[in-house]
Amino acid sequence: MIVRIATEGQYELTESDGEAFNRLDNHAVGACEADNEEQFHAAFNELLDFVRANGQPVPDERLEPSDVILPPPDVSFEEAKAEFTGEGLIPG
Amino acid sequence: MPGLSGRMSTVIKAKISKLLDRAEDPSETLEYSYQKQIELLQNVKKGIADVVTSKKRLQLQEQKLQDQVLKLDTQARQALAAGNEELARTALERKNVAQTELQSLDSQISQLEQQQEQMTASEQKMKAKIEQFRSRKEVIKAQYSAAEAQVRISEAATGVGEEMADVGLAMQRALDKTENMKARADAVQELEAAGTFEDLTQLGTGEDDIDRQLRQLSSSSEVDSELAKMKAELGTGSGPAGELGAGGADGSPNQSQAS
User: Fold this and answer.
1) What is the ipTM of this complex?
2) If you average pLDDT over each of A78-82, B45-49, B218-222, which comes out highest?
């Protein structure tokens, strides 16, 4: 599974990492829905650290779309919430 | 996928497929996509140049502020030596503000440096992807039947399209931050323009808006202790009433007393 951390790069995770990844992803979403900023940043950083620690960086010359894309590491809480309700980070 | 990571992927894929739909035959898609990549690379180069310009501007301001701090310090000493404690205090208050601004400029400059590095890395990555796309484009054109080519093109274009969207996002964020800094830099520049004393005699008499603002901004205890230190250095009443700053010499009553 290829995961992109937006503005940072792509990482390849093994299939077995998928479950933990999803769980962490859901934590971040849960914090957004609960409108808990502190909890969001903690969960999101945990998610990023997981990908960086377990993923293999995808070489520059490989040209493949990602299975999932995470928001940029410097994402604000407002932006993260907008991912679910508004237009998201990529402008039209 | 409904998660945080799913939403961005979906949006990007939707945008890329919209882009692909515009072209009717496969080779047109390839060329159009390649064209877009080259354009983006040019934009990244421009973006880097923009960040570098902002950085240089802040560095110039930093230099000016450093000069100002020195000048204000000298002026405070001169004022104190001439027995004008009030004027010395004002100079030190301004010095205090300038020093605070210096610190914040310093952190902004290092932020811009980080952005420059990040964008340069993006540029390198983008170049590698474009080169990869270019060679794949030639292979697809030469080796595959139309139907098969369509599938391969779509894959390659989606891969490179995602990279483009990401570089675009990184650049947009970097430039947004730079814009914010520019606005702040303008404010500092105004302060800097108003900060040095062109004519020291004018400041002894009245207090303008800037003075009041500065008084609020600066920490008076710091100024007090610095003033006390300066007094101790000069020795009480022993110093001759020296000339005040170069710009303030004309018609200064203090100076005529001194000579």
Assistant:
1) 0.80
2) B45-49
